[in-house]
Amino acid sequence: MVLKKIGKGLAYLLVLMVMVTAVDMWRSQDLPTDVAALGTMTTLSGDEIDLNALSADQPVLVYVWASWCGVCRIVSPMVDMVKVSMVNAPVVSIALASGSNAKLAHYVQEKGYDFSVVNDTDNRLGQVLGIKVTPTLMVAYKGELRYATSGITTLPGMLGRLWLARLMG
């Protein structure tokens, strides 16, 4: 009886994973696939990020958000946990139209976020990526953007996408 319930649970989990993957692939179809389109980005701390090079050997979570986004206030703490999870993947975040560097840096410090933040004050990067909704999460791996999803995403969902990117190579 217990084995039957476990089998049924695993079957539901598999169906759910297939559905989520299909939705992610559908959402990703309008995104540019080449991360080189973003060029070199500069974080609030002055570090330069070349997402193409950073994603060459490992999946990178790309988190597009805004300080004024209500849903982002729920998702951002989970994004921050990706670095300390078993996956230990790098996170690059792009804050859309969230004010000056000083204002955004104060916001990030106040919230205690530890992920890298690129301030997209004029929404140039958001336009290159075709972002219409915040938050949007993607995985960059081997120079390509994959598995885009928007709205509330859980930590297991983020980790699953990172794992799937590595698995699918």
Describe the structure.
It is a single chain. This protein is an alpha/beta fold and 169 residues long. The protein has helices spanning 2-28, 51-54, 72-82, 101-111, 124-129, 155-168; strands spanning 40-42, 48-50, 60-65, 91-96, 116-120, 136-141, 144-150. It is built from 6 helices and 7 strands, in the order αββαβαβαβαββα. The protein starts with a helix and ends with a helix. It has a 5-stranded mixed β-sheet. 43% of the residues lie in helices and 21% in strands.
Task: Provide tags for this entry.
two-stranded antiparallel ribbon, 21% strand, alpha/beta
* Order of adjacent strands in the largest pleated sheet: 5-4-3-6-7
Percent strand equals 15-25%
Quickly give the structural class.
Answer: alpha/beta
SSE order in H/E notation?
Answer: HEEHEHEHEHEEH
> Treating each run of at least 4 consecutive H or I residues as one helix, how many helices?
6
Report the major sheet: 5 strands, mixed
Q: Give the total of beta strands.
A: 7
| Low-pLDDT ranges | none
The average pLDDT is: 87
Estimated radius of gyration: 16 Å
Helix content: 40-55%
Global geometry: globular
Distance between the termini: 38 Å
In short:
By secondary structure, this protein is an alpha/beta fold. The protein is built from six helices and seven strands. The protein has helices at 2-28, 51-54, 72-82, 101-111, 124-129, 155-168; strands spanning 40-42, 48-50, 60-65, 91-96, 116-120, 136-141, 144-150.
